[in-house]
Amino acid sequence: MAFKYAVTDQNDIYFITTTVVGWIDAFTRKELAEVIIESLKYCQSQKGLIIYAWCLMPSHLHMIVSAKENYKLSDIIRDFKKFTSKKIIKTIEEINESREWLLDKFSFAARINMKNKEYKFWQDGFHPIALYSNEFKDQKLDYIHNNPIESGIVSEAEHYNYSSAIN
User: Fold this and answer.
1) Helices vs. strands in the chain: H and E counts, helices first
2) Which one of 27, 52, 111, 130 is separated from 98 by 20 to 30 angstroms, measured CA to CA?
3) What is the pLDDT of residues 109-123, one digit of tens each?
4) H or E element that contains 137
5) DSSP state of 103
6) Which residues are listed as membrane-spanning (predicted)?
7) Which of 28, 86, 90 shows the shortest CA–CA distance to 60?
């Protein structure tokens, strides 16, 4: 039996990762990255999301998050992914995106998944891991902030624009 990651306690702090289908580097375009940033801000102000750390890599998003009291983290992330998926597809259609194959890939991913109608942007799930100890929290925080360094994008974590390391 496979182990399924799930939010078991809506009040815990979680390390989560959500990934673009096929690990496609969608967020190399500023316009697409901004969809994520603005949506995270909205989720903080309107949906009860508490973000402790985050890093938007070209193909995925890492965060350490929790939900305010009386909110469900799993619902917030579900809504975030649903909204950003639609908004990113719309943005790709509106901007002068040179990677014409992107929509084909997202359309193909939707055809092989019965839940999606036209496009599928995010992989299913968000891989939540509860952070029970300060040591584990520190480990995941270091991982998030050092991800752009390990990927060769920057040499200093605080130089990466799409990360809380700058703060």
Assistant:
1) 4, 4
2) 111
3) 888 877 667 999 999
4) helix 134-150
5) H
6) none
7) 28
